[in-house]
Amino acid sequence: MASAETTDIFACTPAQFHKIVTDYEKYPEFLQEVKRCQVLKTEGNRKLIAYTVSVMKEFQYNLWMTEAPDLVSWEFASGDIFKTMKGFWKMTDEGGKCRGTYGVEATFGMFVPGPIAKALVNVNLPNMLSAYHKRVAELYGR
Q1: Which residues, other chains included, contact 125 with Cβ-Cβ below 8 Å and sequence gap of 6+?
Q2: pLDDT of 14-53, one tens digit each?
Q3: How far apart are alpha carbons 69 and 83 in whole angstroms?
Q4: Torsions phi, psi of 2, nearest 5?
Q5: CB of 99 closer than 8 Å to CB of 7
Q6: Distance of CA 91 to the CA centre of its chain
Q7: How far apart are CA 12 and CA 18, in angstroms?
Q8: Number of domains composing the chain
Q9: Which residues of 79-111 are buried (b: 16+ CB within 10 A; e: fewer)?
Q10: Three-class DSSP category at 24
Q11: CATH number where 8 lies
Q12: Average pLDDT over residues 1-21
């Protein structure tokens, strides 16, 4: 299993950050590796989301996203490359800004050596955080 976790401070409120994280169909506008993202089904506070992502190669997967006011978590439903995946965004107030903690762990449906699996899970973290910071600035001018 490969895993990653990181925390950063974003120049918006937790509620504003939550809006960005849960606006799944806008992901291709600011997350370079996400080529397509579509809500397939909604069941209460859960949504089934279809992702098409390009990281080294293009692949597709579906995640069940569960939304709470300060937490968005997900679990793997189906897809090309993963056997399992779960993760979260946790949002807390940090003096009027948002402390966002992102965590993910995944296993792959094919043999992937440990160091490569870790790289696949970690490779986009800096770019992803930068993209979220830019999105906050675009939407909230901060």
Answers
A1: 4, 6, 102
A2: 999 999 999 999 999 999 989 999 999 999 999 999 999 8
A3: 28
A4: -110, 145
A5: yes
A6: 13
A7: 10
A8: 1
A9: bebbeebebbbbbeeeeebbbbebebebebeee
A10: helix
A11: 3.30.530.20
A12: 93
108 membership: H or E segment, kind and range: strand 97-108
Question: What are the phi and psi torsion angles at 33 (to 5°)?
Answer: -80, -15
Mean pLDDT, range 62-87, rounded to an integer: 94
Which structural domain range is residue 21 located in? 2-140
Tokens representing 42 are: 């909604």
Distance from chain centroid for Cα 71? 12
Contact 40, 49 (CB under 8 A): yes
Single-letter amino acid code for the residue at 75:
E
Place of tokens 């006011």: 69
Contact (CB, 8 A) for 40 and 53: no
Asked if 85 contacts 64 with a C-beta cutoff of 8 angstroms, the reply is no
Residue 121 half-sphere exposure, CB side, CA atoms within 13 Å? 24
